[in-house]
Amino acid sequence: MILLAPTALLVTGVSLLCHQSRNPLPGGFLSCMFGQRGFTQVELVVVIMLVGILAIVAGPRFVGRDAFDARGYADGFLGALQYARQQAVAMRRTVCFTAQANGYALTRGQAPGDTCTVALASPDGSGDYAANTPGAVSITGHGATALPYTVTFSPLGRPNAAASFRVSGDVDRCIAVEAETGHIRYVTC
């Protein structure tokens, strides 16, 4: 009974409004309550405009994936550099990040102080940590860095030298490795 009271109040209110209007709709209460038989021209034009704006803004994102591939690869590249540094510190081994025009790969030393000869496993254990460059993306050295280039992280997380890479796709994204701290970040190209 308590749940029906608001509904009954609504129906009664609509009914009173319908009967008090000057030109009640033919058909009684139901036609007054559900009396709209369509949309006005203004409503249709507004909806069509909104759908058009959404199509212009969102449509190209669903058609081409190049922008998403480029951003995803740049984020993966930066993440792989950070992972290499983190693994060097965690395992107390030398870890190398080798960037080439067609992708990148991570390797590590067998024992502390060894050169990088063993492929580093990916975090999920699915195989070696490496990635190929997608079709619409290219990678180049930026500044003094020329490909192929290997960033070698010491067991303290310090790189052998500063490095800078440019990942090009829809927009150029530059990634820098600081020489002293090993800090890895996006920089302005």
Overview of this protein structure:
The protein is of the alpha+beta class and 189 residues long. Helices cover 38% and strands 23% of the residues. It has helices at residues 4-20, 29-33, 41-63, 66-91; strands at residues 95-100, 103-109, 116-119, 130-132, 138-141, 149-153, 163-168, 173-177, 184-187. The strands form two sheets. Strands 1, 2, 3, 4 and 6 form a five-stranded antiparallel beta sheet that branches. The chain has a four-stranded antiparallel beta sheet with strand order 5-7-8-9, covered by helices on one side. Strand 2 (103-109) and strand 3 form a beta hairpin. The longest helix has 26 residues, at 66-91.
**Classification by helices and strands:** alpha+beta
How would a textbook summarize the main sheet? 5 strands, antiparallel
What Rg, in angstroms, do the CA atoms define? 31 Å
Helix-strand pattern: HHHHEEEEEEEEE
Shape: elongated
Mean pLDDT across all residues, rounded?
A: 83
Percent of residues in β-strands: 15-25%
N-end to C-end Cα span: 69 Å
Helix content: 25-40%
The number of E-state strands comes to: 9
pLDDT < 50 stretches: 1-16
Number of helices: 4
